[in-house]
Amino acid sequence: MSEQPRTVTLIDEATGKRVELPVVQGTMGPPSIDISGLYRATGYFAYDPGFLSTAACRSQITYIDGEQGVLLYRGYPIEQLAERSTFLEVAYLLLYGELPTAAELADFSRIITHHTMINENLKEFFRGFYHDAHPMAIMVGVVGSLSAFYHDSTDIHDPRHREIAAHRLIAKMPTIAAAAYKHSVGEPIVYPRNDLSYAANFLQMMFAVPTERYEVDPVAERALDLLLILHADHEQNASTATVRQAGSSGADPFACVAAGIASLWGPAHGGAAEAVVRMLEEIGTVDNIPRYIARAKDKSDPFRLMGFGHRVYKNYDPRAKIIRKTCMDLLESVGQQSDPLFELALRLEEIALQDEYFLERRLYPNVDFYSGIIYRALGIPVQMFTVMFAVARTVGWVAHWMEMMADPAHKIGRPRQVYTGAGRRDYVPVELRKPAGHGPRATNGERR
Ligand code: SDX
């Protein structure tokens, strides 16, 4: 006999009214109460700012167990993919749901490789930015503009168009990222090369100059490919949820990914990678660590330990474990005895994880805590760290966008609210109004 669908019963203490709500159970993870009919059945909204207890969708792409520190891409443990896979193979897995055969991977790599160039007119965009523009600001602008160039693949109801747009985004992100960097250092933009791997191509677009041959360091290529794998997807994080939300209205994929880049930039999310290094530089020495730990614990101080804590992981972020080990291997292999910031980060972690405040809140290093150490060893400047995150996460963003768009039942995301503003009131003629002191702050000549 098929299992009876489970339900939970909600009782309104005020009226004694009972309502049964269905329970949704996935392959793994906690059961969810389907509250989509709650308002219709009870007149109540559910209230969950920050979505601490809300599953926004069904997905088959990535599974996280925050208690156990587990991360699976399409069921495969991140530790195994990190050790044995490549970024393009992981991209195929996230997009299509299965590991490719050798022939399938070769075909996919060829497709991506042949989309790495950007329209020549796009290069003019970079010249319009100040040289000191943050590269994430450039990424938001240039990626958003791709819909102006590739409108032959923006019929979002056509699965083939969706796939082409996904391939174009995965392929062009490194080219745009490297061009943003070249603009900031006043060097000519470097074209992609079809004879190189995804990671190697990025490194040569970043560091090659017309005056000499550029040889890709295989150790750097492997370290970068590993970081790309580790950052590729992470279920419904803020930027992926942003891409889904933008896509739910039918916006084109390039605009959706631009929205994801904007969300990722925040220091509470992908911007933490840059913020960690700036924090370590500010801390400077091991002697200063206790003072910064005290600040992180002080509720009156906005300072937080960047790279620490996570909404889902209440255990060590499995990606941080892998990156931490890779730091040690990489620094050794590139002949750097060590990076003083890496030493400082190790001590900071050690001291924080002996402190009750962090232990009782289960705050551990997350993916951003050590990633900057590797980027520094690769010669990537700190303001490019979140751009690296965006390059990798584009695979997750487009995989989730494709999954949502392929679901005929998907609806526009339109949350409700708890209204706490003024009650209904009538218009007041200007001559009867009194100054309320709510107007704009006095300006002090900000740059126009
Ligand atoms: C990423 O979602 C994802 O999957 C994201 C990501 C991905 O791959 O997409 O994993 C990538 O964004 C990693 C997170 C990078 N951000 C940082 O490293 C910034 C520092 N971390 C914090 O801002 C914070 O931990 C968040 C934003 C990551 C999580 O915040 P939550 O889940 O909303 O937790 P919270 O703010 O409610 O904190 C719970 C408690 C609070 O103290 P109490 O009110 O209980 O006393 O822990 C404290 C917080 O003050 N706390 C910290 C802290 N993080 C949380 N205190 C000091 N330093 C910190 N870093």
Give me the oligomer status.
Answer: single chain
> Helix segment count?
18
Query: Which residues sit in consecutive blocks of at least 5 with pLDDT less than 50?
Result: none
> Which whole number gives the mean pLDDT?
95
What is the structure about, briefly put?
Helix content is 47%, strand content 5%.
Furnish the topology, listing elements before pairings.
Layout: E1 7-11, E2 18-24, E3 32-33, H1 38-42, E4 62-65, E5 70-73, E6 76-77, H2 78-84, H3 87-96, H4 102-113, H5 122-127, H6 135-145, H7 159-185, H8 198-207, H9 218-230, H10 238-247, H11 253-264, H12 272-283, H13 289-297, H14 318-333, H15 340-352, H16 356-360, H17 367-377, H18 385-405
Antiparallel strand pairs: 1-2, 2-3, 4-5, 5-6
Helix pairs in contact: 3-18, 6-7, 6-11, 7-8, 7-18, 8-9, 9-14, 9-17, 9-18, 10-11, 10-18, 11-18, 12-17, 14-17
Bound molecules: s-citryldethia Coenzyme A.
S-citryldethia Coenzyme A binds next to α17.
